Amino acid sequence: MAAHVPTWTLPVELWAIILGCLPRADQRNCLFVSRSLHDLARSIVFHRSTICLGVWNGSEIDPWDITGDCIVTEEQIEHQATVAWQMLRQILRDSVFAAAIKHLCVRAYCDGSGHFELPFSDMLRMFDCVFLEALADALGSLTNLLSLTWEGESPMVNRAVLDAVSSMGEMCLTELHIPMQSVGAMVSSTSPFPRFDQLRSLSLTSSSWMDAASPAAKLRTAVCSSVESCCRTLERLYVCSDAIWSLPVRSFLNLRDLTICHPETLGGLNLVLHHSSQLRALALILRENPIGLPNSVFAPEPDAVPRLSSFKLICVEFAFISDIPGLVSFLRGKKDLRRIDVDLNSPHDLGSFPPPTPLTHFFDLLSALPKLEIVGLSMSITSPRADFELLDERLPLSATALLIKLNFSSSAIPATDWIDLIRKRRSLRYLHIIDLEGTMDLKQQLLEDHPDSLELVGYGPHLRWLERDPETGAPAYSPRWPAAKVRFRTAQDFGSVDWEWLLRFHGW
User: Fold this and answer.
1) Strand spans (E) along 272-385
2) Is the four-CA dihedral 498, 434, 60, 264 of positive or negative sign?
3) Mean pLDDT of all residues belonging to the chain
């Protein structure tokens, strides 16, 4: 049967562009307007699809559950299970619907390990194998699938699912994001990782940092097998633990984006950077001080990765950077840097703070990077007034996104001074403040006095768009993002790849 041809004045291609600019809710409404709009909207609405098995509990986002949207009920769990099965059946029955899905995310939260403790979860666990089998069948029908993301580990992604994705013939998966523990459970010397001929992005994440920090030999073998299977085309790699140091040199030759999460040591970092000549983005996420970190791990290779444009260094728990001058020396020559997010905090348990000189060096660095426009700073400082004035002077006026994480009482700096610092950045579109001491509440002042360019404001886990009342024109905040949207945030939610990058790894 011939496809339905709409009788519109504008070409279908222009209508597709128009629908693509609509809010998500309006795009879904277009499914029910007419057959013509339904067919056009379907490819847009289901371009990125999510299948939920179980319900993620948002208490880690809002532990006080102020709004009540973090409460999980049995009805919600049963509804999500029903929707998941309906989605799989629709994929198997409708080839046009299946062809519309290019990016699939599976959220697997069916256990009671910190996500929810409900009797219905026991029932869902009984269907894990059945669900995975049905999912593997459905994946075989997704002829245009480009990316698969697996969030959660109950059930864990299994061999059948990966084999289904890797054996699609003409279909070429380019992005794969799965838990590292799943890879360790399914890969061995006799059962290697499936081969993906066009894979460009591989993320082996871990929700259990204890397991990630000390992987068994089997897990190291599994990680090496997975990376080596696609190293010829791989451009983006996210690996937890020390498993990365076991990878052969050829794994890094084409990398443009590298994330190393929770390593025990950093002794192999210089070697990795030396061979990653194409690297554009580097992220180090440290939970405890790795061996080698108190000494400079960057100084021996100050000229490594000359094309670096994004650098992120996040310290959590007891990790800290003691050699800030060495870090500054490494970054100073990176003239292409346009995104930087660095933790300058010192350890809480020692009751000490970084001396003023290293912070001075780092603030001087900000003004020495001509392309810098995305800035994230986590700070604990000894001289609030002097350091604040230096930050105000060195922070680029052309910054378009700014994240400030304060680990000191901001009461020493008047709110009007913070507002003045923000207002000077006339290109600022996204501002996020994480105030660990709870002394910096600028929400009302920002509403009354902010750069005209400002679009999105974040305070801790709460994000709100800055809008205007359609009748009075007065500025107002939108409802805050739901907890699930914050937890599973994507570049599409922000409308900006840079903004998603800036908030990445900052909790939640």
Assistant:
1) 281-286, 310-315, 339-343, 374-379
2) positive
3) 82
